[in-house]
Each structure stands twice: as structure tokens, then as C-alpha cells.
Amino acid sequence: MKKLSMLSFAAVCLSAAPLQASEAIVKKARCVACHVVDAKRVGPAYRDVAAKYRNDPKAPGKLFEKVRKGGSGNWGEVPMIPHDPDKISDDDLKAAIQWILSL
Predict the structure, then answer these.
(1) What kind of architecture, by CATH, is found in domain 2-101?
(2) Does pLDDT of 89 surpass 80?
């Protein structure tokens, strides 16, 4: 039983590592200047984004384009500025979007 508990603990830790890394990406890219997990700031809460796109299989691509190109109208009148690949790489952006959609 003890061996199983240790394996379960290891599995939980390993599965949480990508999520923690993705949250770190969001912080490093300074997305947190406008967004937080549970409350609207300048932009929507990440949980609200996840809820809005929960049943949309095209959500990762839509959000990727929205972050790269910027825009307004989906969450109000305040525009989101475009975010260049030199600020957040494609891979990091994809990981961040997956983290947000997992909330």
C-alpha cells in the first residue's frame, strides 16, 4: 500500500508540473498585468475564458490568433494588444492557452 501511495503522489506531482510551468509562462509574459485566474481586471478572468470556450474544439487556435493579433469586442470595448513572438514564443503561448483552458 505504501508503494502505491508513493506512486500516486509521484504521478500527481508530475502531472502538475506542466500546469505550474504554464502558469509561470503567463507570469513571465506579463499576461497578469491584465488577467488573473478568478477576477476580471482589464481583461477577462482566465476561468471565464475557459468557461466560454469549454466546448469549442477550435478554442486553442482562436485564442492563439487573438493573442498574436490582438483585438476587441469579445469581452468589452478595451482592446487586447497584439503579443509578438519575441515576448512569448509560439510553444509557450500554446502551453499557456492549454493551462487557461484547463481551469
Answers:
(1) Orthogonal Bundle (1.10)
(2) yes
